[in-house]
Amino acid sequence: MAVRQKRNRGCWWFLLGLAVVLLVGGLVFYWQLSSRVNLTPALGSGAEAALQLPPGFQVNVFAGGLNGPRFIAFGPDGALYVADRGNDRIVALVDADGDGTAETTRVFAEGLSQPHSLVYHEGAWYVGVPSGVVRLEDADGNGVADGGDTLVNDYPTTGFHTTRTVEFLPDGRMVVAIGSSCNVCQETDLRRAAVVVYDGPEATGERLFATGLRNAVGLAVHPQSGELWATNNGRDLMGDELPPETVYIVSEGADYGWPRCHSGDVVDPEFGGPGACDGVAQPVAEMQAHSAPLGLVFYTGQSFPADYHGDLFIAFHGSWNRSEPTGYKVVRLPLDGSQPAGPVEDFATGWLNPNSDEASGRPVGLAVGPDGALYISDDKGGFIYRIYYVGS
Fold first, then answer.
1. CATH of residue 214
2. pLDDT in tens, 58-91
3. How far is CA 378 from CA 59, 84, 329, in A?
């Protein structure tokens, strides 16, 4: 009996010691993390923002009442299609009278699982959901999808970064961006932190297109060159200023460095080492760390001033992992063809209140409308904003 009591006491002391170690370790981790984290802007409910724009531009709310709207795209019918992720559906916003405000919200497809991206290709919509890609067709033309055809249903859905972005290359191949499962780690599923490619819209012949992209949420094809461009979200816990967020021209077969190298030349403190960035593809542009760039779109309209034509717009979802919040805006990258013609500059701001660190909204998706206006989704406020030019 005495031996058993001693063993029990020893077990209790071991458990107590383990609890102390875990508590101290947790406190140390929290202390390190809290110096770099400000969750205030990301939390709370959204509201209509008073946006600040360059001279000559104005803004109105195109639609509201959505639940976590993510990527957006105009269909051949002129309606704006929205991945209304919080409602597990795709909706079409219709501005029948052309006054810049949607009068009708039509449910195009429902019962989808957290749709994030959508692209129209050869008569059908292709939608990215966490587990894969769904194709939606409206064969009878009644404005509602005739059910869904699941093309891919085996993407990993655990861990971080469950959005899936679908795009089509000029040669008809389909690409999908799949984010990492973690902040920084070695992945067992090589499709994570990568872009995969398929032979065409039937999603056959899956293989890796590019690797080392931690979380390439936004994909867009350059309207002249046909190059695939991507935004990429850099890793956390390297401080407020590292690594920079990036925009890449994604080349087939290229390695973009993650997890050993970030932004082309930043060696990872855990997975890097001498030569970690050798042979790593370089970004087209670098941006403020932790801005969380998501959607991107080339300006192909005609109503903005001529010096905006062909430029790239990028939606910054905004930081949660920075002591002083950043992002929560839409920026412009001036381009000369495929080359930056200047630094990234603010275009639409006002979602973030710098005095209170509160944010009324978080920009996500971008689209250029048939009217030449720039449309922006806000997944915190549930709005679609429309920015148009009236002249100075």
1. 2.120.10.30
2. 999 999 999 999 999 999 999 999 999 999 999 9
3. 14, 11, 10
